Predict the 3D structure of the following.
Amino acid sequence: MTIWFRILLFLAAILSLQLVLRNIRKSKLLISDSLFWIFFSAILVILAVFPQIAYAVSDLLGIQSPVNLVYLVIIALLIWRVFKLYLRVSSMDTKLKELTQRIALNEKATHSK
């Protein structure tokens, strides 16, 4: 990995961490949700500061370039996060549907009296 790519990784990690902390302070982001982004930033910092980890893992997995490994890790983590968010949205959609049905039944029962 070139020094410029390592610097870019480090800056991206610092900027994302700063964005997460600012949104936590403004109460726009739950602390539980921010843990993923803090973990994500930590991985970027580790790969930027210790590029030999990327070299060793890419050799172990047979990936030609450590940069490709970094991209693969980033994409995999983001896909995992999107999947978890879809699970949450699906659960909330089901709960919203049940809540709407309960409210409709309560209103019907109230108007029937």
Summary: Residues 3-112 form one domain.
